[in-house]
Amino acid sequence: MPEPRIGVRRGGAALNRSSQEAPARKYVKTRAAVAREAAAAAAKERPRTRLAVKKLKQKKPVIVISESSSGINRVKENRAKEEVEGIMGDGSGGLSANKGVKQDDGNAAPFPEKVQVGGSPMYKIDRKLGKGGFGQVFVGRRITGGNERLTGAGATEVALKFEHRNSKGCNYGPPYEWQVYNTLGGSHGIPKVHYKGRQGEYYIMVMDMLGPSLWDVWNSSSQSMSAEMVACIAVESLSILEKMHLRGYVHGDVKPENFLLGQPATPQEKKLFLVDLGLATKWRDTSSGQHVEYDQRPDMFRGTVRYASVHAHLGRTASRRDDLESLAYTLIFLHKGRLPWQGYQGDNKSFLVCKKKMGTSPEMMCCFCPAPFKQFLEIVVNMKFDEEPNYSKLISLFDGMIGSNPALRPINTEGAQKVGQKRGRLNLEEGDSVPKKKVRLGVPATQWISIYNARQPMKQRYHYNVADARLAQHVERGITDGLLISCVASCSNLWALIMDAGTGFTTQVYKLSPSFLHKEWIMEQWEKNFYITSIAGANNGSSLVVMSKGTQYTQQSYKVSDSFPFKWINKKWKEGFHVTSMATAGSRWGVIMSRNSGFSDQVVELDFLYPSDGIHRRWDNGYRITATAATWDQAALILSIPRRRPSDETQETLRTSQFPSTHVKEKWSKNLYLACLCYGRTVC
Ligand SMILES: Nc1ncnc2c1ncn2[C@@H]1O[C@H](COP(=O)(O)OP(=O)(O)OP(=O)(O)O)[C@@H](O)[C@H]1O
């Protein structure tokens, strides 16, 4: 069966080494970054749905500790009851897909017998051509007007795409897809829409009638396609995508079901078309001509799980690279007949598929495929968010696999031929003088991630490989020397402890406990006006929680869950909370959010490897890393904009296989101090 898709209509280069040490990543403010910050500041004046940070009245606190089945909170105001939020251990958030948006209109209003919309001829509805998650497509046989033509507005047979007016895609009027067809319809490889309008309960689009989809062809040819056939598909689909991208759109749902051939026994039968523009989005802003801004919302998935790019799974803003990654999976599927992540089921299917995509090296994925498949996959999965694809080069990869006589090719490749003639084919080595770092190695590795901030000179101390029994003596010695704990972490069930003189806290308590996290103790301390300032969890499930007095927090809430709790974080952001600490214990996440955190905005970077590209983009927009945590599978970084900007915004990151003891000393000599620390997945 074709793979269902999920979606709502309308809508860094990491390491090229396994567990070796990574060089320092440094934020240096360039002129371009300053300009981008100014643009971002201007953009902030526009309404944003992202964060609505309400300023709370700073009343004299009345402590109410509230607990319900839904969460653990410390409320420092008289508004306790309405503030109780969060579910401990419900596993919400993470990579959960945006389910339930597809409408099965099985029991919707009956389809009319005849259709006439937007000045079209009258059509009688004939056989069904196909059904997707949003619409149903029928043959429309013209019964008035027109002439005996096979194609065009007066064609005797057209395709009629129906979408029920109550379907999710039509909440705000006609389907969003109509708008996209207005711009793209009739351009190379996109069918033309001749008429559209509403009739009764349905929005109806009258378009060129096409033939079978590539999925149909694959299915009726013993579920495999020859390398030459797939190479032709690659060449032509790349030229279709190139033209679509040139017009500022990404398709967003590239898959075999959405590539249709022309009608059989017509001159179009070997021509390739791309349909279903309902998930298309703009990668380029029409008025400014600028690339759209980067963002990641890990709970936002649009597309079809089997073919979606990893970035789409992770909720990153769609860009040209995503169509190409989906095309790579489409081509491999058509040739090999299977993708390694088929067969996953259940609630966390999207997470498991994404993990498998990340964990399968291009070599593994393309074994038994001709070399261009691997080369293509490698190029597209290593592309940056706003990188312009080198379409000619990508087409060139497959060119050599295709017979030289165009008339004998199983698929027309006219579009690509034109592109090729115009530009001339590129030498494959061209532009490859600087080898790109590969992000997907298929060799997972865990490392320390350490973050350093520029600060006034101060005393800082670190301890690592600390067993439970030795923790107290380190802490006590630190306290005697005027230091308090600023950060804790864990690796191999041993603790790492950072103590310094610059925390601003007045008093501190901490608790080692066999559970993640010790609710009763936390609530007791909340009652005494302590707030959680640092947490760590060990693989054996134990935790170290540090709570302090003298913070600026006015309210605190925490959540423990089995997947990264983005949904909860997003909800708390809207209530004015920000993430102030984060940790993992095995595969569980623990996130602490506080009110009055001193941040004006916050974002998340979550990935199956260290998300270099995303971090650099956030840095350029004024964000700095303020919390990190990682499991064996994923690394998460919280980046925030402080309300009061420090005079020196320098931040550096390091990834090292050993605790970065010598590096820390080097950083100290440059007045850079450890600010966050975690151990977990950084390479995939
Ligand atoms: N112009 C056309 N000519 C012939 N068949 C078509 C045409 N457009 C669509 N179809 C058929 O109808 C099916 C559903 O169409 P389409 O993909 O546009 O609907 P959808 O509801 O948006 O699907 P999806 O669930 O993929 O979003 C296609 O897979 C194809 O088989």
TrEMBL record:
Pfam families: DUF7477 (PF24289), Pkinase (PF00069). ATP binds at residue 161. PROSITE patterns: PROTEIN_KINASE_ATP, PROTEIN_KINASE_DOM, PROTEIN_KINASE_ST. CDD domains: STKc_CK1. InterPro entries: CK1_Ser-Thr_kinase (IPR050235), DUF7477 (IPR055900), Kinase-like_dom_sf (IPR011009), Prot_kinase_dom (IPR000719), Protein_kinase_ATP_BS (IPR017441), Ser/Thr_kinase_AS (IPR008271). GO terms for molecular function: ATP binding; protein serine/threonine kinase activity. Signal peptide: none annotated. SMART domains: S_TKc. Keywords: ATP-binding, Kinase, Nucleotide-binding, Transferase. Residues 123-408 form the Protein kinase domain. Its EC number is 2.7.11.1. Residues 1-28, 86-113 are annotated as: Disordered. PANTHER family: CASEIN KINASE-RELATED. Belongs to the protein kinase superfamily. CK1 Ser/Thr protein kinase family. Casein kinase I subfamily. This is non-specific serine/threonine protein kinase. The lineage of its organism: Eukaryota, Viridiplantae, Streptophyta, Embryophyta, Tracheophyta.
